[in-house]
Amino acid sequence: MTSTLLNRKLGRHFDLIDTNGDGKIDQADFDLIVTRLSQEFGQAPGTPKHRALTDAYAALWSGMQQSMDLDSDGAVSREEYVRGLESNAAAAYQEYLAPVARAILDFCDVDGDGRISGAELAGVHRGLGMAQHAHDAAMRTLDLDGSGYVDEAELTQAIKEFFSSNDPQSRGNDLFGEL
User: What is the predicted pLDDT for the residue at 152?
Assistant: First the structure.
């Protein structure tokens, strides 16, 4: 069973990717996230970055549907989501979440310097439907070296911690805003 902290984090993430608030995640939710991020960063459909992000989210959805959609209704409920990540977080991270993180980093790295500025991360957070105060909390804790940027190592560490750590002091806890 997951800890209360991990349940809160998974619930926060579920709410972000359940873009229409219907209590389930399906392909349409991921399509809307890609659309929002594309609008935020001015990426037209068909561009290499857009295709890479679309493909990463499609693979994430396919993996989620195969491993989490226990009732085969074509969607993943909150309970299925939490149970699926609880039982398979490490494998899910390696197979699906890490490629999405890499695609997001590439997608929003507007200046191509291999890291995400505070402004670029704010665009990602807006694309995910997060409020400014949630972005501010995330940036304060994600920028491990105080550079004003989040690099791939910092983002990767935060994602791993968010989806697996029960440590209340983990910096990854605030990946999607303060809990």
Answer: 81
Torsion of CA 110, 44, 65, 167, to 10 degrees: 20
**Cα–Cα distance for residue pair 169/17, rounded to 1 Å:** 25
pTM score above 0.85: yes
Domains held by the chain: number: 1
**What are the two backbone dihedrals, phi and then psi, of residue 56, each rounded to the nearest 5 degrees?**
-65, -45
Say how many residues make up the chain: 179
For the domain that residue 94 is a member of, what is the CATH number? 1.10.238.10
Burial class of residue 82 in the structure, from the number of CB atoms within 10 Å of its CB (0-12 exposed, 13-18 middle, 19+ buried):
buried
Q: Residue 125 is encoded by which pair of tokens?
A: 């957070």
